Amino acid sequence: xxxxxxxxxxxxxxxxxxxxxxxxxxxxxxxxxxxxxxxxxxxxxxxxxxxxxxxxxxxxxxxxxxxxxxxxxxxxxxxxxxxxxxxxxxxxxxxxxxxxxxxxxxxxxxxxxxxxxxxxxxxxxxxxxxxxxxxxxxxxxxxxxxxxxxxxxxxxxxxxxxxxxxxxxxxxxxxxxxxxxxxxxxxxxxxxxxxxxxxxxxxxxxxxxxxxxxxxxxxxxxxxxxxxxxxxxxxxxxxxxxxxxxxxxxxxxxxxxxxxxxxxxxxxxxxxxxxxxxxxxxxxxxxxxxxxxxxxxxxxxxxxxxxxxxxxxxxxxxxxxxxxxxxxxxxxxxxxxxxxxxxxxxxxxxxxxxxxxxxxxxxxxxxx
Length: 368
Fold this sequence. Notes:
By secondary structure, this protein is mainly alpha-helical.
């Protein structure tokens, strides 16, 4: 019988949500304040408008990080205290710095190009930005497993044995082409467990967390890992990554021109010179973020539907009881709530764990 640790999970997640609310309020305040002073800051920056745009965003990002960091540090300390993280503070800060460096390398040129497009194509820039953002999303999906993930977590090719045999059998049953099966060394940083099938085309690979798999010879853990991996393979068998990109394409096609229209009618104290003026970027980001909120709820709903479909696929490719046990182990190791508050459920990308466990057991009973 697995101890689901619900008292600990509720306390941990409640504190996490509280930090999240404070962090969101601080982020909003920083962006609004940034929009109000952006014109003054822009006047003090050197170079043409695209360069100033990148410098302005870099400065705003640094200020945001200064205010956000205390909440992030508190979150890391809470994870260590709860036994979820075994990562040292120095290692955690290094990972955060890597994340910021990647964001800067990708985001700052994108910001400069956005302002250049706004100035060169005052009527068509939202659609150019929409197309470029989708292209970037696809590129990141393809290269992240190969270039970005290794910056944060080590992995090694899964050698021969029961675990590799099981993974190969599942891949064959799914009809998918997978380039590699790797063991993700999560235990260096966390006690939480997970598995994933990542990448597209030639970069598609299976990642099994070493905290999930347990002893390679443990038949029960092997069956649980099989069920989790079957769920992850389902997302690729069902084309869920393309579904997600399609939904993002549809919603962002609405959001880019809509946010541009809102920017055009915002007060000059926020929008300054409007599209093409670097000082207008914080206001545009604010407009886009606020407008995206209802679309985010739609995306979360769609994601939950795809997760339920992937669960059902896992019952067929593995079995319902093993999936239920695997979910219970994930609940315990990841300090997840069986039934989170309603707002968390509405905003969540996955159905509540309690619902998924019950559905798996119901499927197992029906198959018996």
